[in-house]
Amino acid sequence: MYCPFCRNPDSRVVDSRVSDDGSSIRRRRQCTECGRRFSTVETASLSVTKRSGVAEPFSRSKVISGVRKACQGRPVTDDDLALLAQEVEESIRASGAAEIDAHDVGLAILAPLQRLDLVAYLRFASVYQAFESLDDFEKSIEALRREYPAGRPGSLNP
Known about the structure:
With 158 residues, the protein is of the alpha+beta class.
C-alpha cells in the first residue's frame, strides 16, 4: 500500500474495524516515512463463473439490469431494484464462497424478486428456468396462487 501523500510503499496498521454490515474492514494506517495517517477499506472479492468458464467480478448493476427487464411496466422503483441487488449480494456473500456460479446468482435473485413483484418474478423465472410451453407457465402460476392465496400487489390472483 503506497502512502497517498509521499508514495512511500511502507505503512503500518494503527487500527482495524469491521464495518457495520460485516462486509468490509476499515484500516487506519500510518506512513513510516512521513508519519501521516490514511485509511483503507478491504473487501473480499466475489467472482461469478459464467457457463463459458470465464470468471468476472460480481456486479450489482448486472443484477439490476437483468431484473429491470422483467420489471418493465411494473410498479417497481429503482430503489426497489437496488435493495434487491443488495439482498442478492448479501445472500451470496453469506454462503462464504469467493467464487459462485452464474446459475446460483440467478437462484439467489428468484426469492427476493418473488417477494417484490409476482409478475416480474414469473417473467424472470420463465427465461431463467427456460419455460418451453404454456404448461410450464400454468404450473408456475398455480404454485404461486397456492403460495399467495389472498393476493397482493403484483399478484396473479384476481
